[in-house]
Design goal:
alpha/beta, five-stranded mixed β-sheet, 19% strand, disordered N terminus
């Protein structure tokens, strides 16, 4: 086991990072079911999120995107040692949406990938934060999914947060889920979170 770990480490160090991750994805049998949209900036709103494995396999898709800069929480920046093109996102004075929008404007290629359920457990709602981030940054939204049944990575067409309302975007997400039967696509199908936005609590 130690020998194989050393071999992989040597290959990783000697191989261009994009080639290494592409080769890893191919050897593990994962492929792209739909072509990635041709855009320099966008928010990838991904679901269902049912297992910790989603992060690993999601990275294989992300690293197949040429020139990508990927935004993550500052606590995950240690992962740059793996050759990942990461950017730290922290909440600024104006809020997280404004901070992320600033990063979009800073780079020629920049994508935000996030799991919109916010948890691997089953919930009755998802977060609407991805919509407000995209609207603030004036970048399109693309829905993404991992289908463990077929080992395929799926992306939707692009949608404009400036032209569509929050509820209209939600309907697009539901249509994408129905089209690809995503309710049973997760690593743990029973953890599929319902596509509803959290209702605001009424003040007493």
């Amino acid at each position: 086991m130690l020998l194989w770990a050393c071999v992989l480490l040597v290959i990783f160090c000697l191989t261009p990072k994009k080639s290494f991750w592409n080769l890893t994805r191919q050897k593990m049998g994962w492929s792209l079911k739909t072509k990635l949209p041709e855009t320099k900036h966008c928010v990838y709103a991904c679901f269902p999120h049912t297992s910790g494995w989603d992060f690993f396999y999601g990275l294989l898709l992300i690293l197949s995107t040429p020139g990508a800069k990927v935004m993550v929480k500052s606590e995950l920046m240690w992962m740059r040692i793996l050759g990942l093109p990461l950017l730290a996102v922290s909440r600024g004075k104006g809020g997280q949406s404004e901070a992320i929008a600033g990063l979009f404007r800073k780079f020629d290629y920049c994508y935000l990938w996030l799991w919109i359920s916010g948890t691997r457990k089953k919930t009755d709602h998802i977060s609407s934060g991805f919509y407000f981030i995209a609207r603030e940054a004036r970048v399109p939204i693309v829905f993404g999914a991992l289908d463990y049944r077929t080992k395929q990575m799926i992306c939707s067409e692009m949608y404009s947060a400036e032209e569509l309302t929050k509820d209209e975007i939600l309907e697009k997400a539901r249509a994408f889920s129905k089209q690809h039967d995503l309710r049973g696509a997760g690593y743990v199908p029973g953890n599929y979170s319902e596509l509803n936005f959290r209702e605001k609590k009424k003040s007493k």
